[in-house]
Amino acid sequence: MEKTNLIKLEKKLLGAQKAYEKILIKIKKYPDYGIGEEDNVQEIEEFEESLGLRKNIEKALKEVGRAIRQIKKGKYGICLSCKKEINPKRLEIYPSATLCVACKSERARRKPWLRFPWRG
């Protein structure tokens, strides 16, 4: 991968990392609306909603962190499955990608539940 593209993608990843960390800080603050029963119901509803969001943000943060570490090791942009270079256009769109399109498609074909985890 060209050095200029690598630098550009690293900046993009670092920016995403900062943004995700800020979101996590906001989400982790537990709302306190008061002591009334209605207030408690609202608190619980918001807390439950934030749990799903927090899980997704934490996953994205891990992916971004892994990509940044791969850049520092000089292994960024290499498919974890076939060990070939991931298309730079794919990395531009999804900088934390760890699989090339072919391997990702094959994995989705073999294990469709990984593609749509909410389907059970």
Short key terms for the protein model shown above:
Four Helix Bundle (Hemerythrin (Met), subunit A), 69% helix, 5 helices, 120 residues, 0% strand, mainly alpha
Give helix and strand order, one letter per element, not per position. HHHHH
CATH class: Mainly Alpha
Parts with pLDDT < 50 across at least 5 consecutive residues: none
Query: What is the number of E strands?
Result: 0
Shape: elongated
The CATH topology is Four Helix Bundle (Hemerythrin (Met), subunit A)
User: How many domains, in number, for the residues?
Assistant: 1
Beta-strand share of residues: under 5%
Rg from alpha-carbon coordinates: 19 Å
Structural class: mainly alpha
Under the CATH scheme, the architecture is Up-down Bundle
Major sheet attributes: none
Helicity, in percent? 55-70%
Mean pLDDT comes to 85
Counted by DSSP, the helix tally is 5
Zinc finger (dksA C4-type): 79-103
Keywords: Metal-binding, Zinc, Zinc-finger
GO molecular function: zinc ion binding
Domain Zinc finger DksA/TraR C4-type: 74-106
Care to describe what's here?
With 120 residues, the protein is mainly alpha-helical. The protein has a single domain (3-119), classed as Four Helix Bundle (Hemerythrin (Met), subunit A). The chain is built from five helices and no strands. The chain is elongated and about 60 Å long. Residues 74-106 form the Zinc finger DksA/TraR C4-type domain. This is DnaK suppressor protein. GO terms for molecular function: zinc ion binding.
